[in-house]
Inverse folding.
């Protein structure tokens, strides 16, 4: 009896399914036969079938057979989104490019802008920054040229700005990213577009998180989650879930982070979007790692890495490898920890150099573009003025135009001369800085010290110091081609410099660096090698004449949200005794490093709101006996 009942139900369902499929096929044939130009009509047929790959492929096939361009466009665009949501990025790009070519043929600018943004999003998920930026910029350029834009165009402009902001995040230019998001969110508020507001608040939270402002990050993530809940966006709730969990982990609220990300894991699995699924597993693994659930953490992080590798989610490949390195470090399996750490750095290095080059070239391109647009606007204004005035007085117009052109040429020439002079000065500072850091005496003495270890057959020390010396030389040469570096990188370079200099002092100098743990040294920018001249002065004028107990300390602290302070202290003979010794020498060692550093800091501070300061303080005891010297360097960070 049960078998018969099951058979009847199966037959009924089969008939219904066949009937529905037949009905859809007939609707596709109806669309193709009548070749409706309105995409809204096609959408009304597919509104519940946008995720049905077979029906979309059938629409494309029948449209191609009947030269129905709108049908081909709709099907290819929908397939591009289908493959993107399933993390099949290469297939998605192929379909989107087909749709893009068709949108150009049918001269549908709105559709063209949307497809350009979609292509940019797919490339951005793969961390292909060059192509992502190219497509989003094309979309923005086309959209802003449309006069009296409709709501859909305004949305596309906002999407482009938001996406460019995300690219700035990939380039670690978080303040520039926040600037793009602030432009995008104004449009979304004007339109009352809740999905756009959810995305923007999510991205703003991401930028604040990277800048170390966790409270603002959490505030924006919760705003995004609220909007996502209002529109019932599953993907949005997944993103907010692992984003909030990441902040909670940084706040050391590991149990709360675990519960938060574990709640959205099943949703992520059901949605089948491998990009977000790999993110979720990675965050889950990190929470488990911090809760010492090492076996569970290993499974989660390995799953995240496998998904990210299979579907080319580059960011998670890097992060999962970093987290697995931390896991094996906890397990005291240092060989495996180093292996994963090395993979993470190798993966990150694949695109980071290219990103920096792209960032510079993009800024130059942006400047050239704005400059060209300003020239075009200026010429248009001149033409309008000419048309108005030509009927009144031709001679007066010619005279006025001539004077205006002459003034423009003079102003342009003066401005160009100033620019060239400034560029020449910057180049000169770079060359002087390189000569200062690559002091021939320092190189000669360092190599002599290493040679001594070789002569003494101390291969271990010789190899160690030779590696440090070569690494320092490479950093010095790299510093000559950049205008700023991170404080973390500067500290690493100073450690190298002091370890080389310390050879000549028989490693007698106790050199330490202490930093305020609340500071994110990776986000603070300073001119490269700016601390070296102060360390050199402390060595040669403070500690070189002291016989024993030689100490030097760098203390880094946060004064406010706008300033940091770097104190360089030594327990040397003091400035008075040093000046006396220097005066008695027949040959004085001429130091240009400090003057050069002042010029470099002056040039660096021009682009910031606040200025720097350097104070020299003599350290003395209660009897006014010299205890050393402290150099207090106050640097702006905004």
């Amino acid at each position: 009896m049960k078998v018969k009942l099951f058979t009847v139900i199966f037959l009924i369902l089969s008939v219904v399914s066949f009937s529905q499929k037949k009905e859809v096929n007939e609707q596709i044939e109806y669309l193709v036969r009548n070749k409706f130009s309105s995409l809204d009509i096609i959408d009304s047929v597919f509104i519940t079938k946008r995720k049905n790959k077979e029906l979309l492929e059938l629409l494309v096939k029948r449209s191609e057979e009947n030269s129905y361009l709108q049908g081909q466009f709709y099907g290819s665009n929908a397939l591009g989104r289908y493959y993107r949501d399933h993390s099949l990025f290469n297939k998605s790009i192929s379909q989107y490019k087909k749709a893009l070519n068709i949108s150009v043929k049918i001269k549908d600018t709105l559709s063209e802008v949307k497809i350009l943004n979609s292509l940019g999003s797919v490339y951005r998920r793969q961390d292909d920054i060059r192509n992502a930026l190219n497509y989003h910029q094309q979309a923005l350029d086309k959209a802003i040229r449309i006069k009296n834009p409709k709501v859909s165009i305004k949305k596309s402009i906002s999407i482009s700005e938001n996406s460019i902001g995300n690219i700035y995040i990939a380039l670690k230019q978080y303040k520039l990213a926040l600037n793009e998001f602030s432009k995008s969110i104004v449009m979304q508020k004007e339109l009352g577009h809740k999905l756009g507001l959810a995305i923007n608040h999510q991205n703003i939270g991401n930028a604040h998180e990277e800048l170390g402002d966790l409270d603002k990050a959490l505030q924006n993530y919760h705003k995004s989650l609220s909007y996502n809940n209002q529109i019932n966006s599953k993907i949005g709730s997944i993103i907010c879930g692992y984003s909030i969990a990441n902040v909670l982990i940084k706040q050391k609220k590991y149990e709360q982070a675990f519960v938060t990300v574990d709640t959205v894991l099943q949703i992520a699995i059901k949605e089948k979007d491998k990009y977000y699924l790999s993110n979720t597993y990675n965050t889950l693994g990190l929470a488990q790692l911090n809760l010492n659930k090492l076996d569970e953490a290993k499974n989660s992080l390995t799953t995240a890495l496998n998904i990210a590798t299979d579907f080319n989610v580059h960011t998670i490949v890097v992060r999962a490898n970093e987290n697995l390195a931390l896991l094996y470090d906890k397990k005291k399996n240092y060989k495996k920890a180093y292996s994963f750490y090395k993979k993470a750095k190798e993966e990150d290095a694949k695109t980071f150099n290219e990103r920096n080059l792209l960032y510079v070239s993009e800024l130059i391109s942006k400047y050239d573009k704005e400059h060209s647009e300003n020239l075009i606007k200026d010429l248009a204004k001149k033409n309008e003025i000419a048309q108005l005035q030509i009927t009144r007085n031709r001679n007066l117009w010619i005279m006025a135009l001539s004077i205006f052109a002459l003034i423009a040429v003079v102003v342009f020439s003066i401005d160009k001369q100033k620019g060239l002079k400034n560029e020449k000065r910057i180049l000169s500072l770079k060359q002087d800085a390189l000569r200062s850091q690559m002091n021939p005496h320092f190189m000669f003495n360092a190599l002599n010290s290493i040679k001594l270890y070789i002569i003494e057959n101390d291969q271990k020390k010789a190899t160690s110091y030779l590696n440090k010396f070569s690494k320092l030389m490479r950093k010095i040469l790299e510093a000559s081609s950049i205008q700023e570096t991170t404080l973390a990188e500067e500290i690493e370079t100073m450690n190298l410099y002091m370890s080389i200099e310390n050879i000549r002092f028989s490693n007698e100098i106790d050199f330490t660096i202490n930093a305020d743990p609340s500071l994110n040294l990776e986000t603070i920018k300073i001119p490269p090698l700016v601390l070296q001249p102060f360390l050199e002065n402390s060595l040669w004028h403070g500690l070189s004449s002291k016989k024993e107990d030689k100490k030097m300390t760098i203390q880094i602290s946060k004064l406010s949200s706008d300033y940091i302070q770097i104190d360089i202290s030594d327990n040397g003979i003091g400035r008075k005794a040093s000046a006396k010794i220097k005066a008695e020498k027949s040959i004085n060692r001429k130091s240009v490093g400090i003057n050069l550093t002042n010029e470099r800091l002056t040039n660096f501070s021009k682009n910031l709101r606040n200025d720097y300061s350097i104070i020299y303080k003599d350290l003395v005891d209660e009897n006014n006996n010299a205890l050393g010297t402290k150099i207090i360097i106050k640097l702006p960070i905004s």
